[in-house]
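[step 3/7] fold_predict: job queued, chain A
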Amino acid sequence: MGWTEKKTIAGLSYYYDETTDAITWDTPEELMSREEIENNKGEWTWVPHPTELWVPARRVETKSDGSVICLTEDKKKVTVPKGRVMTGPGGREMKVEFWPLKRSTLLRPEEDLVMLDDLNEAVILNNLRSRYGENLLYTWVGAARSVLVAVNPYKQLPLYGPSKIDLYRQPPPNTKLDPHVYDIANDSFNSMLFGRRTSNQSILISGESGAGKTVATKQCLDFLARISGSEDNIEERVIACNPLLEAFGNAQTIRNNNSSRFGKWIKVYFDPAERVIVAADIENYLLEKSRLVYQQKGERNFHVMYQLTKAGEYGLGAPQSYRYTNQSGCFDAKDIDDLEEFQLVKDSMEHLGFSGEDQDFAFTIAAAILNLGNCEFNSKKEKGNVTGSSLKSKDPANIAAKLLGVPEADLEKVLNYRSISVKGKTAIIPLDPEKARGSCDSLSMAIYGRLFNWLVRKVNEALQGKANANKGVYIGILDIFGFEIFDQNSFEQLCINYANEKLQQQFNKTTFKEEEALYVSEAIKFTHVDFIDNQEVLDLVERSPGGILPMLDDECLVPEGSDAKFMNKVEDRHGKNPKFLTDKHRKLNDSFNFEIFHYAGVVNYNADGFMDKNRDNMFFDQYVLCSRSSHGLMQELFPKGKGSTNNKSQSTQFRAQLSDLMSSLADTESRYIRCIKPNGKQVSDNFEAPLVVDQLRYSGVFEAVEIRKQGYPFRYKYNQFACKYSCINRNYRYGTAPKDYKRRCEEILNNAKDDFSEAVFGKTMVLYRTSEHRNLTLRRELALETIIPKCQAVMRGHLPREMKRRCFKSRDELDDALRVGNDIELLTDAIENVEPTIGPHYMRLFPGVMPRNLEKAKTHRAALQRWKDLESVLERLNAVVEPTQAEYEEMQEAVAEAKTILDVPRTTNQQTQYDKALIQVHYMDIKLTEALLQSRGGQYDSLQKYRGLRPGVEYSKKNKKVEESMCIWQKKKIKMSLTPFEDKEVLKLASTMFDSILIYAELKKTKEDPNAIALEFIKTALENDHLKNEAYCQLIKMTSMVPEEQQASGLKCWDLLAACVTNFIPTDNDLQLILIMHFRNAPNGAVQNYLSAFHETKYGEVRPNVNNLMAAINATKHAERTRYSVRA
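[step 4/7] structure written:
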């Protein structure tokens, strides 16, 4: 059948010949076009290119003079001279080695550099460029996944965030994810919890300014914060400190608009049992304080200086007004809104627990430094014809003094003079304008450096978590400056490159040591691989007493020491060192330049200014002045009694910090992120090959690839290998026991179609190289092509059946809880058990499929929860003795809500509380009514005060006497209703009702039965709510101010009133209150009887009695104290 193209699970193409059982990643000639065959002919290699550095080319001809003619892919001819040395980009010398090239390599970028067919600068560069073009920013160096190359895209890509973190934390089965910074964080976290060698972990992030170190650090922290959380929101504070530290420690450089100008070692501590963050702390390294007083063109001071000046706070003007921010002419940073960032800084400080005083102090000191920078000095003659200085204007110094909390005159003095103590005698020495300027800048840098350290200490206090928390194990993240080679390299670059030399040595030793330790433990023969040992360079820089930095410290202690003398001593000491070089005409040219041969390349340093930068101190007078500040926090920066200045040089401090760091790293399992800057313009989709190659060399990536390539980069435990690759021998029946893993692995490889003789078998694992890994991967893919459909067929039947079984199990549990009815905890457990019972994988496979009674259970649970919530409310309100209006309204709402869910089963206590509430709500109403009448009873003590009455003038038709008798007993018939009605028929009924009262009271004669007339009165009122109020108005009138001689008629009216109370009450609330007040006039002291009957009618289930008048009357007159007037 010949060759056919196939696809891996990940969608990559490979090729298989069923006839010969051959398999390959490369396109066979049988499947190539004529053009492809033609292009693949000959010997392909790499040749220099003026911009791309290296490009593929085919060797066409070798000339008689030894030169070689090559043809590039775009048909351009390149002649490689006999000496094989050509000039590349920027004039760099390039040695052409004619590295072999398989053209298929160009079509298949590898996610692991070790997987490349050949190891050379060109193929590694091409692989990274191809992945960069596809927005694949991360690339592994070795299967161990401990070294990651990260290329900065300079654009937003959907690579980060909670969903991506969750994906990399729990990747789907059989899904290969692209390399990611989250892998490094995830592997560190897992190794911390489950690793064999050590618990503590470290992630070393390096790269030059603009390479993306800050982003990599932030993403690692975001990942750890999301997957672990914390006991005390520590993870939020770790992330929250970024705006603050970036404001005071980051700046715009030529290469990066947000460059960290200090290194930091962040330790995130975990409780391994709970797997949560319990604390964190940060150590800072080598803050670039010189940036505070000078910035070259296109760069800025630290961000906070522009944030403060643009905000106009602390009396500051625009950044153009200050020497420390206007030297470079650059006031804005690309993509940075200083005012917006300033607010984030304030929010950060607030989140971290900085007090208002702390925040004000930090900004005040920064403002003071800006004013210090504006001090200018005139020349001034002192005694003995010595040149001194004076301030051109005292205003900047006076403002600074006020902000620093020091006397103005004292600050002016320390700026223009310094004191020296010799043998107990103090001499005052004037400073000329140049030295005064230097003194002022030194003071500014000293204050700012101490302020920054104080900020870091305050941040660390906020990151400590609970006071008694056990810090446990940690993951350390080192965000540190990468190797630097500039046109002008000074003391800072020497310290930075020295640190990178130390870290590179640690990387090399760790990598080789781990590799060789593995081979020894597995009893595998191996050839010791020599690596570049940079100890000689480290000795040149650090070894005491002859190292460059110790010699610099010694020179700083010599009274007449100078950069020139230091340079002479270094040259004399190291002139013959192969790692050190100076120009033989250096002294004639008055040059302070020297070169060091670092692992990453030769760097030319200029020692001019080394001593001033190394001293990093301030004059004694300046220190004393600051220590006497009226500001307590300023005194904290400059504690009294600590002598002058910092007695330790900058290099001594840095070497001590670096030594501690290296000790910490030695106790951790390390992983590395090498950040690469693709171009110098910081723009997207631009890959500058020369710049990238230099960074790869500086960061040791080429060496790392070589280390792993020379050994056995791929290794599996025997049981893992047997499980993964036993499928590659299709239709083969293994003879070894399934659990005899080593022999099974040997049998797998011995019976495979390809040659795996280079694989080696150790004590616990099988190890092999890239070519074997390629073949194993392809054979497994081919086998899976057959296995997966079979497995899918089985699983398509199994999975739905299993899903059904799990749904039924959950359904039965829900039904059991629903049958109980009123047990919310049981129902909640049943609902919450649905997802665990079904399982997350089945839920993803069958989205939306759930037990059919789940929604019913959730609805019922919501109703039970309403009862549960009501239960606590009712219990509380039922206990109230003296209710407030708010409590009464709350009780009304609670009872009303309870009535809407009476069909829901409830507990005994819930039913009890509900029953009590039905009475308690009326008790509350009664108590509130009593309180109202007690305080405002005068508003309801007569019928005249009822606002629902017809106007007196209208009622009396302007008859004064009739108007006066409107609300009191009268013998005659009324001509108009007491309450207003529009309906004439109702008006007639009202008049008839009053006639009924007169008849029943025996004030009007009739042949009809008075009792029947009274019952008709009650019936008429019951049929119309307005007539109910009219009836009570008439009865109150006829029982008010009854003449002595008419008491008998009055009592009859009270009886009729009693009969009405039994059947109905007024619909108007004000009239009810008047009626209650009127009960106080009831005959024979029956006020409580009338009131009790009223409450029973108002709150109880009324059954009107319109057939037996005496029964209705007696029901009121003999009523006992109602249950509603007693608390439930």
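[step 5/7] annotate
DSSP finds 43 helices and 28 strands in the chain.
Residues 770-820 form the longest helix (51 residues).
exit 0
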